[in-house]
């Protein structure tokens, strides 16, 4: 191999080691050999210390915006295509490489005082993501949000309808969640996107293959919605962020929006946009029953898993487990 010219050597190498074709980026600053060839003008200060990994519809945008209010917490630059989300670890952006990822973050003026983070709500359920995150950011803290998975599925379905997705427009929620292997492919895809992120225990176990439980923080979406000040209190403790910010000064319930919003002045609040925080008709009893049965085993597994994260079993989970008997 060593006697070949560089290009041929490359081809030969990947012929011999095809598994190496898929890169796995590691942090150059963690390895002295890598660091010695890392150009002097590069820095390792532009990598995040924590990630909000999702799943979608659990309040990830609200949490992202509340955290961004903190003076020592800084998120990535916004993207024209994917807005606040970088979607590095779950898409072809990964192949754009480490420089691309680092350039997605601002260079903090006081790196030791600043926590960089990103929120990409599709990371949670993606099979490859925990392995890639652990390779590059082994010390990163991981934030996961959980809510009743049936409600999450319904919220996702309504989200698709708001975006006039033809499949969501053509089928009722019950038809979507009861679709089977004989159903049209687009209906099956919508069913998967409604249902699979809510298999929380299964996904959490995959994250636990790569991260110890004390590096993972579970946020209960209902608490974020009803008592975000308390959620932000515990989150700041988990992140060891300074200075401590008393969010009761910065968040306020907005009766028109029906959610907590950022305080701008005595009379003015800044709420999330129209696409976050909807009211829609209640889920039909048939779909509810079907989903209770569908998620039963997964919810039981979740209730056992929560003990390792030192977090209480939320009310919705207690109710689901009781009703499922
Ligand atoms: P709905 O739009 O179905 O009501 P995500 O940002 O992860 O996609 O989650 C969107 C959900 O966040 C919304 O779902 C809403 O219920 C919830 N949410 C929680 N706190 C919120 C807040 N302060 N403002 C707006 N939506 C909030």
From TrEMBL:
Domain Sulfotransferase positions: 48-297
Superkingdom in the source lineage: Eukaryota
Subcellular location: Golgi apparatus membrane
Endpoints of the signal sequence: none
Family, as annotated: Belongs to the sulfotransferase 1 family. NDST subfamily.
Name listed for the protein in its UniProt record: [heparan sulfate]-glucosamine N-sulfotransferase
Species for this entry: Aplysia californica
Part of the full-length chain shown: 573 to 897 of 901
